[in-house]
Amino acid sequence: MRIGILQTDRVMERFRGRHGDYPEMFEDVLTAAADGETLDFEAVDSMASAYPEPGSCDAYVITGSRQSVYDGDPWIAGLAEFVGEALDAGSKVVGICFGHQLIAHFFGGEAGPAPGWAVGVHESRIVADAPWLEPKMGSFRLLSSHKDQVTRLPEGAELFATNEFCPIAGFTWGDGVLALQGHPEFRKPYSMDLMNMRRDLLGEDTYRTGVASLDEDIHPVAVGRWMLNFCRG
Q1: Which residue in the list 27, 57, 97, 231 is annotated as catalytic?
Q2: pLDDT per residue over 141-186, tens digit each?
C-alpha cells in the first residue's frame, strides 16, 4: 500500500530533534500497526501545494496543523481541492485533527472553535459498527491537542466516535473518507512538550488536567490498524 502523508504543519524546530516531524510520526504508528505488511510512504508538502497525481497513492493521510481550516490561506483551499480529486480518482483519505476538520468544512459540514483547548488524553466511545473497526473496542483513548473541532457533519457522513468535549470525534463519509479528531501519531513526551510550551495559553486548570491525563493508557496502534483496514477497503 502506498500512503501519501499530506503535511499541513511542521514540528517546531526546537522539538524536532526529540520527536521528529509529522510524516515520520505517522510512518512510525502505521508501520507498527501494519503487522509486517510493507507500506510505502510519500511525504507531500501541502503548504507548498506540491501535489502528486491524485490517484498515485492508494490512500492519503492529512496531518494536524496549528492553523484553522477557516483561516483563508490559499493553500488550505488548494488542499481541499486536491482531496476532492484524490477521492474522485479512487484513493482513500484519512483526516486527522486539522484534516478531520478540513473534510467537514469544505465538503458540506462545518468546523469552528471548540469550547476551549483539548489537551492530553481523551477517551471516545464507539457508536457505530463497521468491518474496519478491528480490533473491536467499545472506546479508545488518544492524545489530543486542538482548539477547533467539527460542529456539523457533511451530508451523508456517519458518526462513529464521540466524547463529551468533542461530540463529533470521528466520522466516515462513504467508503472513501475516515476522519478523527484525536492524534494516533502523537506520543506522550511530545504532548507534554506542547502543553509546557502553551501553559499560559491553556490556563492552569486545563494544563494540570492535561498533564494528569498522561497517566492513562492510549491506543495509537489499534487506531492505526483501523486506519489501514479502512484504506484497504
Answers
A1: 97
A2: 999 999 999 999 999 999 999 999 999 999 999 999 999 999 999 9
Q: Between β-strands 92-96 and 110-126, what pairing exists: parallel, antiparallel or unpaired? A: unpaired
Catalytic residue among 27, 166, 185, 219: 185
36 or 220, higher pLDDT: 220
Three-state secondary structure call for residue 88: helix
Strand, helix or coil for residue 173: strand
Given a contact cutoff of 8 angstroms between Cβ atoms, the answer to whether 151 and 111 are in contact is yes
Entry pTM: 0.97
Q: Which residue among 105, 122, 146, 183 is the active-site one?
A: 183
Q: How confident is the model at residue 60 (pLDDT cuts 50, 70, 90)?
A: very high
Backbone φ and ψ for 47, nearest 5 degrees, come out as: -65, -25
Query: How far apart are the C-alpha atoms of 167 and 174, rounded to whole Å?
Result: 20
Average confidence (pLDDT) over 131-137: 97
185 flagged as catalytic: yes
Q: Which residue has the cell 497513492?
A: 57
Known catalytic residue at 183: yes
Closest Cα to residue 228, out of 54, 42, 59, 44? Answer: 59
Q: Which residue has the cell 473496542?
A: 137
Is 27 known to be catalytic? no
Cα–Cα dist 117/207, whole Å: 9
